[in-house]
Structure to design on (181 residues):
C-alpha cells in the first residue's frame, strides 16, 4: 500500500527561510471567527478586533482567550476596564470589522450601533454572539500576550457568524452543500 497522503503533506512543508510574510500568509489560511473586545471609560469607547479569539479554554471557570499584539495601544485600556464586551461579528459585518480595527482610533465607533452596560462593557448590535468578560490572566507569548478572559454572561443571536480566511471575509457554507463529503 502506498502512503500518498503523508508524501503529499511532506512535499508541502517549508521553513519559509525566515520570511515573516510566509508565516503570516500561512496562518491566514486558518479559518476563524472575528471578535471585537470593547469598553467605554470616561465617555471614550475602545475597540480591539481579533481573529485569534478562542472559546472553550476552560469550562470551570468559564474562560475564553485572545492573542493580543504587545504593540496594541488599545489593550492597555481594555485590560484595565471593569468589564469587557466581546462581540463575535456576524455575516454582513465585514466592513464594520475593518472600521473597528482602523488606525484612526477616534473614528472606530462612528455611526456604529452599540449597547453599553453599567460596567462599561460595549456590545455591537446584530453580532452573532456576545460575552461579558473580566480579565483573568495575561500570559507572555512572544510578541503577543495571551489574554485569558473569564466569562460572566453570554448570549447568542440568530445571525450567522462571519468567517475570516485568507485575509478576507466569508460566510459559512450551507450544510447541504457539504453533505456529500
Ligand atoms: C480581521 C482582523 C483580525 C485581527 N486580529 C488581531 C488579533 O488576533 N490580535 C491582535 O492583537 N490584533 C489583531 N488585529 C489588529 C487589531 O484589531 C488592531 O488593528 C491593532 O491592535 C492596532 O490597534 P491598537 O493599537 O488600537 O490596538 C486584527 C485586525 C483585523 C482587521
Amino acid at each position: 500500500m502506498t502512503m500518498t497522503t503523508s508524501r503529499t503533506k511532506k512535499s508541502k512543508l517549508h521553513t519559509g527561510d525566515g520570511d515573516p510574510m510566509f508565516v503570516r500568509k500561512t496562518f491566514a489560511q486558518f479559518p476563524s471567527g472575528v471578535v471585537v473586545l470593547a469598553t467605554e471609560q470616561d465617555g471614550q469607547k475602545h475597540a480591539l478586533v481579533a481573529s485569534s479569539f478562542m472559546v472553550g479554554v476552560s469550562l470551570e471557570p468559564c474562560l475564553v482567550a485572545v492573542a493580543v499584539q504587545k504593540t496594541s495601544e488599545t489593550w492597555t485600556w481594555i485590560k484595565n476596564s471593569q468589564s469587557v464586551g466581546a462581540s463575535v461579528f456576524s455575516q454582513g459585518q465585514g466592513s464594520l470589522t475593518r472600521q473597528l480595527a482602523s488606525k484612526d482610533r477616534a473614528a472606530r465607533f462612528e455611526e456604529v450601533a452599540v449597547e453599553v452596560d453599567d460596567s462599561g462593557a460595549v456590545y455591537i448590535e446584530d453580532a452573532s454572539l456576545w460575552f461579558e468578560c473580566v480579565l483573568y490572566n495575561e500570559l507572555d507569548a512572544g510578541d503577543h500576550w495571551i489574554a485569558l478572559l473569564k466569562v460572566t454572561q453570554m448570549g447568542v443571536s440568530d445571525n450567522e457568524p462571519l468567517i475570516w480566511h485568507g485575509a478576507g471575509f466569508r460566510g459559512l457554507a450551507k450544510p447541504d452543500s457539504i453533505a456529500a463529503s
Q: What stands out?
A: The mean pLDDT is 93. Helices lie at 4-12, 20-28, 74-79, 94-100, 175-178. The two ends are 24 Å apart (CA to CA).
